[in-house]
What does this fold into?
Amino acid sequence: MSDISSSVKLKYVKLGYQYLVNHFLTLLLIPFIATVAIELLRMGSQEIFTVLYSLHFEVLHILCSSFLIIFVSTVYFMSKPRTVYLVDYSCYKPPVTCRVPFSSFMEHSRLILKDNPKSVEFQMRILERSGLGEETCLPPAIHYLPPAPTMEAARNEAQMVIFTAMEDLFKKTGLKPKDIDILIVNCSLFSPTPSLSAMIINKYKLRSNIKSYNLSGMGCSAGLISVDVARDLLQVHPNSNAVIISTEIITPNYYKGNERAMLLPNCLFRMGGAAVLLSNRRSDRWRAKYKLCHLVRTHQGADDKAYYCVMEEEDKEGNVGINLSKDLMTIAGEALKANITTIGPLVLPASEQLLFLSSLIGRKIFNPKWKPYIPDFKQAFEHFCIHAGGRAVIDELQKSLQLSGEHVEASRMTLHRFGNTSSSSLWYELSYIEAQGRMKRSDRVWQIAFGSGFKCNSAVWKCIRTIKTPTDGPWSDCIERYPVFIPEVVKL
Amino acid sequence: MEASPVTGVRLSSVVPASVVGENKPRPLTPMDLAMKLHYVRAVYFLKGKRDFTVSDLKTTMFTLLQSYHHVSGRIRMPENDNDPSSGLALPYIRCNDSGIRIVEANVEEFTVEKWLDLEDRSIDHRFLVYDHVLGPDLFFSPLVFLQITQFKCGGFSIGLSWTHVLGDVFSASTFMKTLGQLMSGHGLPELVYPKTPEMTSHDHNDEAISIKKIESVGNCWLLANKCKMGRYVFNFSLNQLDRLIAKYTTQDQPLSEIDILYALIWKSLLNIRGETNTNVITICDSKRSTTCWNDDLVISVVERKDEMIGISELAALIAGGKREENGVIKQMIKEDRGSSDFITYGANLTFVNLDMADMYEFEIKGGKPDFVNYTIHGVGDKGVVLVFPKEKSARIVSVVMPEEDLAKLKDEVTNMIM
It folds into this structure.
């Protein structure tokens, strides 16, 4: 009993401390305002007018002061960065003909790798512990025995994913193709000529003065890099909108060899894509869902270990695959630390920052053995979207940031239903939170993505209107079943 | 035709559109195990251009498999089972949504019409159906293979290879009929799975003579025949059938057409093989005509005593002397506990009554197939005779028999009809 009462006492102490520090200025101002109010009430209206007249305000003084105020406020509003609004987004839902149940994936692996029973065993163990469900999807070309990944099949997959997502976005937002000012496409591993952005411009007959960009090779965090590019462009171009397409085309990248470190992506990567509409127009403010508060990019590429940890290379037989090194989790942890160090001061409330600072000073000056204080990010954000890179990534981040099961639920359920869809997974997770009806006005969302290089990018969005539970979207037919319990090991 | 005219073979898998199997086990009953080494094979021909494509067929299969959980499953043997708590000693099907295998192929030299004009109907089953067998890797062997072959004219054939543990010819044809209905835009029917039959104990101490016990085939569920088997399709015209009935029926002894056909072929084989080898025949009937599970099969035997030798007498014997052996079969298989295997078709000369099955019920958007050819694969050395329903101009009787017997059978039957 004493344990419970002491922990309850501690909780109240913490709450008191947080309230005190975070509202410090307000608390300071209250006695000051109270004094002034009492004085004014005591003086009475006649005395107030006398005091005012005695200050000898001349017309010139009043005019200059007002001009000064107007001038300062104009400079302030002009130099303020334009707010970037996220009007709406749509996530691609693959057709049922692309479904890959566990047993079917294992059967195909077994038949393709029939000369390597050890590799098949390895894949089986990965799949059992992967956290993926029975409804993830692979593109049609991969359903053949052996897979038939031609360039035409890859283009078909790109068209299927991108055009469906874009049409859904047009329907949701009422956007007309001719009104798109900026188009950014990110797809890491498939980069044909002409580019995917050119493919979209051709299909929808977009304007000839469109600003189009195609980012390739930037890994799973490229979605947030695209948002960063869009944000910078929207500062320079007033009254514009930007469409971002984040996807990963699986067809040409299915690893056909049997090197174990390279088989892992086959087990985790699945079809998916998202289309996002950003805008800096004041008129969009009323229908936009979110506004972008911060976007922080950190790159660990200067460190060799980080650079080599996710490497696309050929195996001994000449098959191209992505080699994931064994210290991937350690490097992800360090990249996260670097990112948090930058984003912490921008988003954490004063109470946490003070605690962190005092713990830092304490460790440096008094005792290096003190445990480093990990700021409580749950106070800065209501929702977390952690890139669904794999079960290990989500577990690692849950531990480092001390998040509860509910905070990482969006990531785990996205991994279960859609697999690792690379850069678009953050949008599926956001869609999950909306579909569960948890997104309220002024909720803040933190999206964290990791990518090859090694990069850690994060974005902070603030919800500007309470979102009604959507009736369409990728989760519409299955949200009642979620959240599901995902066992540690699934027996095949 | 010796060399295969089929080119461009591509294999892929089709799974149920949503999670349906949930990894549940479906036990195989003793009747299923009596049929375990047999495969139903069918080829449906559709001439000319149609208003649907191969990918439409594939897409519809995803929806169809949502109803057929057990068809999408895989065999599990009790020894290498990962889940010891399932408590089953016989093999079973784990409904794990693995799906069926689809084969896409082309035949460039023939149009459907030219193909059907060729004399030898065994080419249908040699080339247009994938040579599917369960095993040696039972864990990952599909239970159904579907081959879609495109011909020069734009028409195509659908070749189905259906493991008999899933059900008999009726269940296979219902599967195809449901596919046709889905393609034509009708809804998905609910498949009613049979309740587990009660394990009634019979006081039979006799052995069943309709099935034959053979050595366990291990992990490859295929029967090894001592001689090469051939296939032939007899086309009895309506005139010939009328003459037969007239010849062998008498006023006081009305006989059905089917019994007369059975007797005709039995008599021919008596002449070919001699009397000692062909004293017993097996007759397979089914209690229902749609979605027939192996437990709905009625397997009977007819034993001939030495005196009866004429077709009328044989037909009368068949009509009156059938002895049902289902109970004995189940007893025999249960007592065996999986140590050996059994065959039904071909253990004796076997006749399968398919009179109630309408193969031409398969219909896509109003278009019926131009020809349907059903057979059984994995038949014992005594052979199997499938009797199909009477159509507008003929009745088809499909025969699977050792090749040397087949040649003589053709002559015998021709003589008897004259």
Residues 257-273 of chain B form the longest helix (17 residues).
